[in-house]
């Protein structure tokens, strides 16, 4: 009896995957293995759930790895140079209003 896997109910399988039972049905339609018992009940093998997650996991690599040798130098490479926007804004006009 040790070779018989523990079968999970749809609620248990959904809880294990941390999804709703409706999402579990969608996953089943997209390839999640399941077992139909003679009574029509659906069960899931925990190993099949783990395999399904492993097959459908996508690892995202950073598009531009950071090179530790490259550092900001504090200079600009633009033709216009560095602009201080506070100088462009002019003097502030925050005076008290006369009453």
Keywords:
99 residues; mainly alpha; 4 helices; 33% helix; 8% strand
Explain this structure.
Strand 2 and strand 3 (42-45) form a beta hairpin. It contains four helices and three strands; from the N terminus they run E-H-H-E-E-H-H. The N and C termini lie far apart (92 Å). It has 99 residues and is mainly α. The radius of gyration is 30 Å and the shape is elongated. The longest helix is centred in the middle third of the chain and has 11 residues, at 46-56. The protein has a three-stranded antiparallel β-sheet with strand order 1-3-2.
Separate helix tally: 4
SSE-based structural type: mainly alpha
Distance between the termini: 92 Å
The gyration radius over C-alpha positions equals 30 Å
Taking the sheet with the most strands, its summary is: 3 strands, antiparallel
How much of the polypeptide forms β-strand, as a percent range? 5-15%
SSE arrangement, N to C? EHHEEHH
Cα shape: elongated
Low-pLDDT stretches are none
Mean pLDDT: 79
Concise structural overview:
The chain has helices at residues 10-17, 21-29, 46-56, 85-89; strands at residues 7-8, 35-36, 42-45. The chain is mainly α.
SSE blueprint:
Elements: E1 7-8, H1 10-17, H2 21-29, E2 35-36, E3 42-45, H3 46-56, H4 85-89
Antiparallel strand pairs: 1-3, 2-3
